[in-house]
Amino acid sequence: MFGARCLRLVLRHCSSVPCPKRVVSPKVLRVEEALEVKEPTGQDIKVQGWVRSIRSQKDVLFLHINDGSSLESLQVVANPRLETRELTFGSSVEVQGKLTKSPHKRQNVELAAENIRVVGSCDVSTFPLKYKTHHPLDYLRQFPHVRCRSNVLSALLRVRSEATAAIHNFFKDQGYIHIHTPIITSNDCEGAGEVFQVEPAKWERKPEENPHFFNIPAFLTVSGQLHLEVMAGAFSKVFTFGPTFRADNSQSRKHLAEFYMVEAELSFVERLQDIMQVMEDLFKRVTEMVLSRCPHDVELFHRRLAPGQEAKLEQMLKSPFVTMSYTEAIDILKQTHQDFTYKPEWGQDLQSEHEKYLLQHCGETPLFVFNYPYDLKPFYMRDNEDGVHHTVAAVDLLVPGIGELCGGSIREDRPDFLQSRLQRCCETEAVIT
Amino acid sequence: MFGARCLRLVLRHCSSVPCPKRVVSPKVLRVEEALEVKEPTGQDIKVQGWVRSIRSQKDVLFLHINDGSSLESLQVVANPRLETRELTFGSSVEVQGKLTKSPHKRQNVELAAENIRVVGSCDVSTFPLKYKTHHPLDYLRQFPHVRCRSNVLSALLRVRSEATAAIHNFFKDQGYIHIHTPIITSNDCEGAGEVFQVEPAKWERKPEENPHFFNIPAFLTVSGQLHLEVMAGAFSKVFTFGPTFRADNSQSRKHLAEFYMVEAELSFVERLQDIMQVMEDLFKRVTEMVLSRCPHDVELFHRRLAPGQEAKLEQMLKSPFVTMSYTEAIDILKQTHQDFTYKPEWGQDLQSEHEKYLLQHCGETPLFVFNYPYDLKPFYMRDNEDGVHHTVAAVDLLVPGIGELCGGSIREDRPDFLQSRLQRCCETEAVIT
After folding, report:
1. Neighbours of A30 (CB within 10 A)
2. What is its main location (chains A, B) (predicted)?
């Protein structure tokens, strides 16, 4: 490996270890790569992965090998004499052989094994995953060290990995600069209360010394927005995609102590439509990328976890999203005969039941609701100065099955508006969130 | 924007707001895009950014506009009647006009302005950045809200953004799955002591309740390695690129409380050379990408901050890296007549002065040092079982001007070795780091 031989000629004085011999060995392919070979020509390859199934017949031994690169496994066909006691379900193996056309309909290629080496054995009696068993998520939860070998969780993480890459590429292609906003910070973007505080685990200070490691109290970030706003003042278009933290003491599917958030700030934007366009493009491009890069994984979710969503998703990608002002939304909610737990009222937040009704009303397609009441939104959103029904230039994207997926606003850029609003906030001693 | 008109035909019942009129406006180009136009044809464009210089002559007004998309600014040529009191150095503007060939040698294109709108004014008397002034970093440090408009810091963040993208793409192209390893964790990869602990800022528990938010003490991650190792057992090749934290109470250029680290784990790797190959490829590919994507930014660093590095960097990219065992390295250090503060001795860590000498000795090219003493390295590195000079299969990459840039090892995969080593660690009550 790595040209050590020619190196020695140049830097003979540097090294006196014997040079590693260059071994000509078959090309190692990932299972995904092997499965993508359209016209196999019996090329000599090597595949490394875990045994997903083993079926021994009189004349032939069938294995399925999965290495996590795809949901699909590669079928290995071998002479039964290659079977050993250690070759079991769950063991890790290296199979060398010839990649050939498969006579079976279910797969295009298979690997005719010439050698099977068990790299790591597996005691099937104690191994948490069982052959041909559909393990429920509650069961898998107990085994963090092997649960990602299950189809559902490995598909989930492959999709997440693709979505992460698609998000980075979306912004990069449009000229955004990526910023790592600070994780430990003294700034609290959303208003105090539900933040984590950070100090060294072992930390002994004398009474006369400053009690804080950073000299001031330091917290885990709840949003990189304020840092990004500063950066937008130098780079015009910036984004971040990092962990954020909330110390909410509630256990629900919607409250996580640690989660990842995409945030972007754009300078010179004066219309809410331009922000909606970025959100819509981001949603569509990332979704399309995941659908095209992980077709098998997505199909698994459509089959097992979210039946009936496929057509809806396609529809969302095809049509432009719907837009509606908050005031219209309230009018629609008031006109319906549906019973809500929370009565819709101008000036009140939209509840999940309201969002759900609005999405239904619009044909189960993503919906932008814009121009929210001034008193519901944080101080940094731009005042629309629109009289009695006083609103700010904010927008939320509601998505069927989820509710609010993202939100944004035109930032208040008039210093006098900001100052008088901040003063009002301080006077009422209520930081609006 | 965004096809609201055709939408209304489909979903007439949804919306009663007047449709925004579609305004035909000139295309907004980033400065970088405008500068890249090879053959300008007088196309009507708009540029938004900050005024970097303003020079008013009798018949012509020259501006330089920068929007952070590139180090270079775009020259704007205008009729002096377009000058207003608010059009100053530091103000943000929107310039509309025709992109034409520039008669000057220094730039290929310039913008013949037809309209200049000041978006945000700037009081030059109080603005921290001054026209035609080279601000030292110590000065810029005081103004976090505008310092990134300086050439050096904006170049630095553009390079960081490109490097981030290149790192993601490098691993993605080679079939690695990206994993977001947990930031808040109870696992301490590198040994206890210098970690940050996390609890909610407002946290009152009754004495009979568990004192910890997560029921156990929780820390900020010092490394995602152990989580990645688990993932490598399902996906074969995984990587993460996230924030890590150390509560080192020392102020130096090498100790940060928060920094970003690239980590990768590969299953089925049995030779250190394969790990070195990944490190070398990563270094070279990311460096090449930054050099090709940010030529002006890199040139600024070569000119102002690191003169004489350009040729050295090119040499590093062209040649294969040098490899040398730790034992050889100690022999070389012992044979030299150079005086070291720390006497080189087998079994002792390489100090900065030793690394520097070795790099010089090898011709200022990146150097892999491998097979380190067993007692210097953590428990998870593979025992080479090589007798008196007992080593593990670990490798560090030393780079001129930096020192250790990355490290890795073959992981110990034999349960009995791990168990006996862990037992030894517990007995001596010293977790080796």
Report:
1. 21
2. mitochondrion
> Under an 8 A CB cutoff, do A245 and B49 touch?
no
Rounded distance, CA A274 to CA B285, Å? 36
Contact flag A180-B260 (C-beta cutoff 8 Å): yes
Convert the pLDDT of each residue in A367-421 to its tens digit. 999 999 999 998 899 999 998 999 999 999 999 989 999 999 999 999 999 999 8
Which residues of chain A neighbour B244 with C-beta distances below 8 Å? none
Mark which residues 262-321 of A lie under 8 Å from B by CB. 267-268, 271, 273-274, 276-277, 280, 319-321
Rounded CA separation A176/B164 (Å): 13
DSSP string, B42-87: -EEEEEEEEEEEEEE-SS-EEEEEE-SSSSSPEEEEE-GGG--TT-
Closest by Cβ to A258, choosing from B14, B184, B325: B184
Secondary structure (DSSP) of A193-233: SS-EEEEESS----TTS-SSTTSS--EE-S-SHHHHHHHHH
Q: What does the longest C-alpha to C-alpha distance in chain B come to? A: 88
**Nearest chain B Cα distance for residue A75, angstroms:** 18
Query: From the first residue on, what is the mean pLDDT of each consecutive set of 10 residues in chain B (433 residues)?
Result: 34 42 78 96 97 94 97 97 95 97 92 97 95 92 95 97 97 97 83 80 82 91 94 97 90 84 96 97 97 96 89 92 97 95 96 96 96 93 94 97 94 93 75 42
Among A168, A175, A276, whose Cβ lies nearest the Cβ of B2? A276
Task: Identify whether the C-beta of residue A91 lies closer than 8 Å to the C-beta of residue A104.
Answer: no
Mutate to test the interface with B, among A267, A270, A332, A357 (most CBs of B within 10 A): A267
Q: Does A246 touch chain B (CB under 8 A)?
A: no
Q: Calculate how close chain B gets to A284, using CA atoms only, in Å.
A: 13
